[in-house]
Amino acid sequence: MTxxxxxxxxxxxxxxxxxxxPDAFPAPDQPAPKARGKVTxxxxxxxxxxxxxxxxxxxxxxxxGRDQAPPYAPGDLDPPEGAPEPVPGKxxxxxxxxxxxxxWQGCPVKALGVNGKVQYLLDIHGQLRPETKIDLQTIxxxxxxxxxxLHHQYPAYAKGSHTPTAGxxxxxxxxxxxxxxxxxxxxxxxxxxxxxxxxxxDDDGQLIYHLGDRLLIAGAEITTQAHQGKIYPAYSxxxxxxxxxxxxxxxxxxxxxxxTWAWERPEIDAMLALGMLGCQMLGGALExxxxxxxxxxxGAGKSLLHTLISLLHGGDKGQIKAENATxxxxxxxxxxxxxxxxxxxxxxxxxxxxxxxxxxxxxxIASSGGRRLxxxxxxxxxxxxxxxxxxxxxxxxxxxxxxxxxxRIIVLSLQKVGDGAVPPNLRAETWRKRGAALKRLLIDRWxxxxxxxxxxxxxxxxxxxxxxxxxxxxxxxAMADMAEAAELPSEDKLAGWTAKLARHFKALSKExxxxxxxxxxxxxxxxFDPFRRGERFTVAIWLKAAAxxxxxxxxxxxxxxxxxxxxxxxxxxVSLASIGLRVVGTREVPVLFVATQKVQGLKDVFxxxxxxxxxxxxxxxxxxxxxxxxxxxxxxxVQTRGTDVPFSAMPGLMALDGDEVRSAAPSPRFAPxxxxxxx
Length: 679
Prior knowledge:
The chain is of the alpha+beta class. The protein folds into three domains: 110-185, no CATH class; 251-511, Rossmann fold, CATH 3.40.50.300; 515-654, no CATH class. A five-stranded parallel sheet has the order 13-14-17-12-18, sandwiched between helices. α12 (449-461) crosses α14. The radius of gyration is 39 Å and the shape is globular.
C-alpha cells in the first residue's frame, strides 16, 4: 500500500506550533485575548485535565489516506454503525469489537475463563495454561511457532511511521484482548473439569478416549478439545488403537499366551486376566473398577506376566509402571489421566507401614472413582483423578489389607512353572499390535457395555452374589466377554461361567473376614490380666468363664472342682466390667454386652486399631444377631448403653476347653440386678 506524502494530522513536533490544540493557546499570528479581571492560571494537572476533556479531533474526513482501505486482519468483525474509522496503517481500534469469548475470530489460542488472578487458556498445542500475567513472554509461549499471527493482528509501529515494524506486535492490545476473552468465558474451575489421557464417559454414556493428540468420541475422531463442559487438553500421545482398516481378532492369541502360566485356578484365572486387561484399557469409563493382585512364589513368572501386559498396553506410555513406588509418586504420574497402574514387587513390609497403607488407600479410592486433593507449596490445591485400574504383584499380599479392600481386589495366584514349560514368545512389535487391536475392539463394542454388565449382574444375583462382590466379579467377566465377542452373552454362557465363579467366590468368602469378623477377632484375641499375676489370658477365655463354660474358669482361678460355675462366672464378669464387657443372657444362650461409652479399659483394648475412639460399636452391630442393648447397664459404677452380640456370632466361645466335658445344670440367668455392679 502506497503511503501519502502528507503526514497524518496529529501533534506537531514543533514546540511553538500548538494549533492542533484548539482553545488551549492562541495561534502565533493572532493576538492574545484581553484578560477580564484577575484570572488565576491553571495548574499543570488542571491544564492536562482540560486538554483531556476537549481532545483534538484527528483523522477527519479530509485526512490524507482516507480513501485507502485499513489493513484489517482476516476474520475481524465489521465495525458497528457510527464507530470511528481506524487510522490508516494503525490496525483495528479498541472500538472495533472482538468476537465474544475469543481473542479474535479463529484464534488458535483458546480462552477458557478466569479464576481470581489466574487466566486459563489452551495454548497453540492445546495444553492447559493457567497464567497470572499476560506479559510479552507469556504471549509468545502461548502462540509458539505461530507468532506471525500476532504481527498481522496486532501490528506495531515506530513513532511517526505508517509501516508495521517487522517482527513486532502490539503487546498491550494483545494482552487486553486475551484478558477480555477470558472474562467473557466467566469463572473457570479446573477441579473436575479437566480430563487427561485415557478412557472417560460423557453424560450420555458415550465412550470418550483421550489419546493425548486426538480425541475419540463414540469411536469417531474429533478436533475439538471441549465436550459437554469438560476440557480435554493436549498431552504427550499415548499408544493408539488401530485407527483404520479391518481389525484381526487378537483374543485367541492373547488367551493362548495367558494359559501358559500355572494359575492356581486354571479354569477361571486366565479368563479373569483377560477381563483385567479390558478393565485396565477402559478403566476410567467404568462405574466400578475392579483391582487386581497377582501373587506367587519365586519362579512363578510374575515379572514375565508384567512384561506381556505392558506390551499389550503399548509400552511405558500406555501405563503407569513402577517398582518401589509411593502413593505420592503414583498420584504425581496419574494427574488427570486414567491410565492403568502396574506395581511390581509390592512386597509386605513392617506391620503398619505408612507406605503400604497409603498405596492401599489409593487403590481403594480408585475402585469407586474419586479425587485426591493435596495442598502445594504455593498454598494452592493439586488434584489427582483416581479412576485407574491397578495391578499389583508380590510374593505375599501385605497384611494391611482390610475386609473392604478384599471386596475390591481380585487375587490371581500363580504356581511355580513346571520344568520344561515354554514361555510365550514376547516379540514387542507383535504384542503391541495385538494390544492396539484389542483396544479398538473394546472401543467399537462399548455401546453394548451397559446391557452386557446388567446381564452378568443378574446372573450373579441368582447365586446370591451382590453388592461390591458382584460389581467386582461381574465387571471383570463382562469385560472378558466383550473382548471375546461382539454379541451379547447367551443364557448358557451366563449360567456356566457364573456357576464356576460363584464356587470359587464362596470359597474365598469363607477364608476372608468381614468387618464384624475382624473386630471380634481383635477383641477376643486381646490379652487381659486384671490380677497382675503375669498370667495373660485372652479375652475369649474370660468370656467363656463368664458364660459358665466348663473348664474355662479353672484355667483362670485354679479351681479344682466344677461345681462352682456360677461363682466363676460372677468373678469373671466382675473383672470384665473393668474393660467395658459383660456376659448376660442364659447359660444356654449367652450374650456379650460391649459398652458404647469410651471407658478407659475398652479404649486400651482397641488402641492403635481402626476401631479406636469408639468405632467398635459400628462394626459390632454388623455381626449376625447383634443389636443395640435395650437398656443401659452399670459396669463398675459407670452407666452405659452398649451392643449385644450373641455368642452364636462367635462359635469358638461355645467350645469346651481341654478334656473336661461335664455339663452343668442349666441356670435361668447369671446376670444379676442390672442396677448394681457385677458383685
